[in-house]
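Researcher: Structure for this, please.
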Amino acid sequence: MNVNKTKNTENERKYLHVRVVTNAKRETVTIRNETFYITVKEKAERGLANRRVRELVAQELKCMPNMLRLIKGAQTPSKTYQLLSNS
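Model: Predicted structure, token format:
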């Protein structure tokens, strides 16, 4: 079996794993074992918490929030984001 893998890191897809606690008293961002552990003040209603999590992850990575796409976990505490390239 021959699988084409590019060694150029710009073409590789980058996924971020995030664990979220909503309705917290204060917002925190911790990174352990390549996973973001985030607490947000927003409730898990109407996408408010997801929006804030996306902002906090983008702030931590020093990129724009629109560079992150939620791949999995829109309604669960465990989420997977894809970091999009800016090209």
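Researcher: Any notable elements?
Model: The longest strand covers residues 14-21. The CA atoms of residues 51 and 74 lie 10 Å apart.
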